Amino acid sequence: MADIITPDLCDEFPEVKVVEPGFINYGGNRAFGGEIVTVKCYEDNSVVKEQVGLPGNGRVMVVDGGASKRHALLGDMLAEKAANNGWAGIIIYGCIRDVDEIRKTPLGVQALGTQPRKSEKRGLGDLNVTLTFGGVTFEPGQYVYADNNGIIVSEKPLV
């Protein structure tokens, strides 16, 4: 994939949607992008765990965790599994844990913050639903690009 530089993409494609600031880049891959797969869950990463076990095919999982900072929705083992299965990245509207290991993992990861407590496992969550957070609506099949400058969403592939 070509270099992803979100300011340059915004200049070239002014129609992109820009997610409000607040996300922190934690992954080993500092810039990433791909087709969106959505997950909606709250303090339960069961669906995230299922999805990272499937072929990612260069896609990006966008997870609406309701901005909860009480439980982490991604840790080092799931990040490693996602990287091994070909996911380009994971964006979490919530928290992650095991940051030092995730920084070594060849995966793009952005989240609101960190929390050492693992998520609950109740088997709850929705896959491929419309999500809205950060002032942007995410639809499965759209494209998302992220780097240290921010996160953008496009109807079509940009790189």
Automatic annotation (TrEMBL):
It holds the Pfam family RraA-like. It comes from the Bacteria. Its EC number is 4.1.1.112, 4.1.3.17. Its cofactor is a divalent metal cation. Gene3D superfamilies: Ribonuclease E inhibitor RraA/RraA-like (3.50.30.40). It catalyses: oxaloacetate + H(+) = pyruvate + CO2; 4-hydroxy-4-methyl-2-oxoglutarate = 2 pyruvate. Catalyzes the aldol cleavage of 4-hydroxy-4-methyl-2-oxoglutarate (HMG) into 2 molecules of pyruvate. Also contains a secondary oxaloacetate (OAA) decarboxylase activity due to the common pyruvate enolate transition state formed following C-C bond cleavage in the retro-aldol and decarboxylation reactions. Belongs to the class II aldolase/RraA-like family. Homotrimer. This is 4-hydroxy-4-methyl-2-oxoglutarate aldolase. The lineage of its organism: Bacteria, Pseudomonadati, Pseudomonadota, Gammaproteobacteria, Pseudomonadales.
